[in-house]
Specification:
The complex is a heterodimer of chains A (517) and B (314).
Chain A (H helix, E strand, L loop, with lengths): L6 H12 L8 H4 L10 E6 L14 H10 L4 E3 L5 E3 L2 E8 L2 E6 L13 H13 L12 E8 L2 E6 L6 H4 L10 H7 L15 E7 L3 E6 L14 E6 L3 H9 L5 E2 L4 H8 L5 E6 L3 E6 L9 H10 L2 H7 L5 E3 L22 H10 L7 E7 L2 H16 L3 E7 L1 H9 L5 E6 L6 H8 L15 H12 L3 H18 L2 E13 L3 E2 L15 E2 L1
Parallel strand pairs in A: 1-10, 1-11, 15-16, 15-17
Antiparallel strand pairs in A: 2-3, 4-5, 5-7, 6-7, 8-9, 9-10, 11-18, 12-18, 13-17, 13-18, 14-18, 19-20
Chain B lengths: L1 H28 L4 H5 L6 H10 L6 H13 L13 H36 L4 H15 L2 H15 L15 H35 L2 H8 L4 H30 L2 H6 L5 H10 L3 H29 L1 H5 L1
Helix pairs in contact in B: 1-13, 5-6, 5-8, 5-10, 5-13, 6-8, 7-8, 8-10, 9-10, 10-13, 12-13
Classes of the chains: A alpha+beta (517), B mainly alpha (314).
Amino acid sequence: MASDVSRRDFLLMCAVASGAPLAGLDPGPAVAADAPKKGGTLRVAFYIEAATMDPHLSGSKIDRQVYHNIYEPLVTLDVRLGIKPGLAESWQQPDPKTLILKLRRGVKFHDGTEFNAEAARFNFNRMKTEPKSVRKGEVASIDSVDVVDAYSIKLNLKRPDAALLATLTDRAGMMVSPKVAQERGAELERNAKGAGTGPFEFVEWVKDDHILIKRNESYWNRQGGPYLDRVRYRPIPDDTVKLQSLQTGEIDVMDYVQPRDVAAVKADRNVVVVDVPSLADFAYQLNHARPPFNTKALRQAVAYALDLEQIVKGVWLNVGVPANGPIPPTSWAYDRSIPPIRRDLAKSKARLAEGGQPNGFAFTMTTNNIPINVQEAEVIQAQLREAGITMKIKLVDSATLISDGNNKNFEMISYQWSGRPDPDGNTYQFYKTTQGTSLNWSGISNPQIDALLDRTREVANQAERKKLFSDLTKILQDELPMVFIVHPIEPKAFSPKVRGYEPIPDGMMRFKDVWLQ
Amino acid sequence: MGRLVLRRLGATVPVLLLVTAGVFALLHLTPGDPIDVMMAESVDAEVKENLRRELGLDRPLYVQYAAWMGRLLRGDLGRSIRNGEPVVESVSRRLRPSLELALLAMTVSLVIAFPVGIVCAVRRNTPIDRAGATFAVFGICMPNFLLALLLIFFFGVTLRWLPISGYTDPLEEGWNGLRSLVLPAVTLGLALAAVVTRTLRSSVLEALAEDYVRTARAKGLSEWRVIQAHVLKNALIPVVTVLGLQLGTLIGGAVITEYVFALPGVGRLVVDAVFARDYPLVQGVVLLIAVGFILSNLIVDVLYGWIDPRIRSR
């Protein structure tokens, strides 16, 4: 998809769409005014350590940050979430159930073996059959993969899947050297030497200390970087200490600045903050299978009692925008003509009466025991009290939260989804009628929603899909499987000497064109 | 002495059994499932079920515990559920920073506590004593995380004398390694020094009132010699008890300090493992911490005998 909107315009557009101040749009690291130069080690800090170096087994966001530099997906994202060529030069869809990918010639894995159609087929088969593969669900629509010629593959789909290309921009599209995968087996999880084709090569992972990658001298793409000699990732779990490490020059990049620190960091001349609007969707799932939220009017009573503007301002300190539904303003499918649900206590009380609880009711909210979640819960609690609704807060750790969600053992539960480039990833698995375990914790089952969701996968035309997602958002605002709260912004902070970073709303830091002044 | 050690070692077996069984039961009673945590984004129930079967998590609890015990007797602590790494490897990698930190913190505490404690006792009820008491109250009351952040701000951010976070092994890079451990060791050592100071002060005071001290003074020994040869040795027993109990805590319980300074220690390992419900890893680390506590108590008992021969003959 050709884009005539610059990154800066795009971010401003998001800011305007959201009403959020993007004061951090300093041209510093984002726009390379001087000529890039080679050399140097970029020191990056994350809040936790990576979990595995095997993209097909990974369920951690931090892993992806490293992968996007050593592996490459078949297709990649531009700043507007459009799909652009990656290891696949071009693609065509002769019919809704066939996708033909023409692969790039002259690409070698870091182990020296060639990337070709056989390698791509090997990767898809691995994702579909490897017992520990976390990618199975993502490539479920692919029935089989045919090698058309040495540099073309044909994906035969079980059903039309308009979201498939977007899925291939991340781990499901990442190509691992078949030789490395076969020879190294489970050891690939700890050692990715030679496994990728990306602008950087894996060097070492000293557990609990650092991951080191170095420039791929024979990278196929001669335009721009890679400029950096090395990138060194290390975990610093404490946010304050991580920030201080950046301010004193012990690190050059940090993955995320807490909302509470954003204002102070933006005032610091030694640090450059880039606000990256995310794909995320932070909400609360309401359990449709048990009282009180099996009654639609009571779900609506809660939604009308909430003041999202206040939550985003008071809790998120405007490092995010109020949500009108599951699709973030960064997406092409975001419909800004649909406003977020506005607080209206009269309506809330009317819905309470309609739901048979004119004097209010009580319920329990389950949420993660982390500071920002606790603050948000307390604000929600106070807002609901004004409508006569009593909310108890149950604080749990992540493992308990997931288990309570999967077992539908909740009344209202926090759900913070990191988001996917295609709106399908923020919708289908949450609202489609499903049996057994799924991310549809609310248990919503609505034929109209099901039909719309299926249709969004069948239709290839983006404008048409956008309309379908708008219709879906309106129904979701009425049916309320979730109350939508915020689409957070993910501010990243850099040392002023870091140049050439381009923020893509998936939050991944690709260092190919980054250089040190 | 040998019999004492053997007897104490024998007594550790039931303790270890109780600790591991207790932790095993508590962990499995806690809501949450390791596979759900690992595959939070995957909705494929079949994948999760297969993995659960492969890891033996579908079997009854007593079978799982028996299997774990059986492996333990063969010296195998199993593998982490999260990343498949042998538990022994994870633990032994984390043990070194923890031990180094514990020893350094203990050194810091002794270097501070001995002079302060003794001087406070000898100069009882003087301004010096009151200053010592103030220091002790400060050390005991000051929360770890706050002290750590203040130290970082002062020595790392403002003066830039020391690195803010991270770990370098002093056994590999002596000077840089020591520098990386100074702030965490002071953080832990100050609190410990406060406790040791108070303990030492009161036990020195007690010893100073004993008849043998009066006799020593009557013999014409200098005050320094009296304290060194007669008071200190008798005042050491309570201090050794405190230090022994604290050593175990320093190794396994320095979670907050490890977290703030991004040190890869045992404390953080076990907390992360609990959050991930990584059962074998939690079991392995808890076992190690329990052994650490038992060993440090054993060392304390042996030291008692060395300090006070009357205990040996009992």
